[in-house]
Amino acid sequence: MKSLYLGLLFAIICVIKGNLVSANCPCKSASLCEPVTEKYNKDLAVFGGGDNGNWKKWNWTEITNVILISMANFSDIYCFAHEHNVRVTILVGAGDFHKLPDPQFRQQIISSWIDKIKTYNLDGINMDIEGPAATKEVVDGISALTHEAHTAIKTINPNYIVTFDVYYSPFLADCISFLCYNYTAIASATDYMIAMDYDASLDLVLAYSNSPLDLLAQSYNQYINELGIPAQHLVMAVPWYGYNYTCSKFYNESGGDVCVIADAPKSQSNFANIMESYHNNIDGLKYLAKAKTPYFTTKINGIYHQYHFDNTESLTYKFQLAQQLGLRGLTMWNAGCLNYESTDQGIQKQTRDMWNTITEYFQLLKAK
Length: 368
Ligand SMILES: *[C@@H]1O[C@H](CO)[C@@H](O)[C@H](O)[C@H]1NC(C)=O
Ligand SMILES: *[C@@H]1O[C@H](CO)[C@@H](O)[C@H](O)[C@H]1NC(C)=O
Ligand SMILES: *[C@@H]1O[C@H](CO)[C@@H](O)[C@H](O)[C@H]1NC(C)=O
Ligand SMILES: *[C@@H]1O[C@H](CO)[C@@H](O)[C@H](O)[C@H]1NC(C)=O
Ligand SMILES: *[C@@H]1O[C@H](CO)[C@@H](O)[C@H](O)[C@H]1NC(C)=O
What we know:
Elements (H helix, E strand, L loop, with lengths): L1 H17 L24 E6 L16 E4 L5 H10 L3 E6 L10 H18 L3 E4 L8 H21 L4 E7 L15 H6 L3 E5 L16 H14 L7 E6 L1 E6 L2 E5 L2 E5 L5 E5 H7 L8 E2 L6 E7 L2 E6 L3 H14 L3 E5 L11 H23 L1
Parallel strand pairs: 1-2, 1-15, 2-3, 3-4, 4-5, 5-6, 6-7, 7-15
Antiparallel strand pairs: 8-11, 8-14, 9-10, 12-13, 13-14
The structure holds 2-acetamido-2-deoxy-beta-D-glucopyranose (5 copies).
One 2-acetamido-2-deoxy-beta-D-glucopyranose (NAG) binds next to strand 8, strand 11 and helix 7.
């Protein structure tokens, strides 16, 4: 009985292993659907996908991990990435936060993630489980989910990776908004954490930077020195988008252009569209002193708008910070925010410059 049972178990394990390279490999050779085994010490990750062939214009020189944010049209990216030893992982969420203390619920989620990895021959997951964790049970549920997912996924194949997106600050808004998780626990169960260095304006009255350098420097200090998370465990995610603020009031005083945003809509807008709007600027590009990010103002049909965003200059300051701190790598949200289709040479140059700048600073970070 016992040996029959063992035999069966063995057979099941073989079936599972045999299934690892799924029959529906979209690449020209089935071997391209094997997990990538390269061990990268530094990572240039890319959030992207579903972009109708624009990935061909990415600068692939240094990319180590493509994190799919859409499963549309991903086959071509997948095969190209695997030919170049680049991992392809997928952004996943956790659904209903308040159920996370329930081990069975966590198990279901993890199974669905593993199904995705196997079905599409992916190299792992990127956990993007943003939201308020209002009780210690939910905070511990998030840690447990991360730990259990990491164990299950590494058991199947140690070359798979688990990464986790964290807020720009571990003590966001002094934690009153319940957006603080147990980052020590999360760090110990991930290959690396991606610090989302954006949506960082807490100013509800005036238009302000999406990604202020001074605040980021302070927040990395909290992760690294207060929580003891190694710099080598942190990847910096910079925004390739910004904010389009409608000004409910606008004052042009000697000190600068004051855009009051109370009771007025704001929206996110990608780099390409913001650069398009720049043609309508009133007074040129200006920089915030501490945040070191650019902004400009437009007036259309009598309504003022102020755009706060990042360009190669402001990103360079951030990349230099990453280099000084010795972070593990760089990434951006997201690759699709650039214009890849324009025939205008100026716009083509903007797109190329954004890619080449992140690539160049990643090379410097690697060389350090
Ligand atoms: C996928 O590619 C097709 C054509 O190749 C395109 O029509 C479609 O818009 C693309 N889907 C996405 C989400 O980009
Ligand atoms: C965070 O998790 C670690 C173990 O992973 C544990 O030792 C620590 O007590 C937790 N911190 C809090 C505040 O719960
Ligand atoms: C900015 O927002 C306004 C509406 O509030 C909209 O008309 C405009 O197209 C937006 N511009 C960009 C670049 O998103
Ligand atoms: C602010 O005022 C100066 C001086 O009058 C003017 O040159 C500039 O265009 C104004 N800026 C905006 C955004 O209205
Ligand atoms: C990629 O970026 C690097 C660093 O800026 C640059 O040297 C290289 O020419 C770029 N490659 C392509 C294909 O654009």
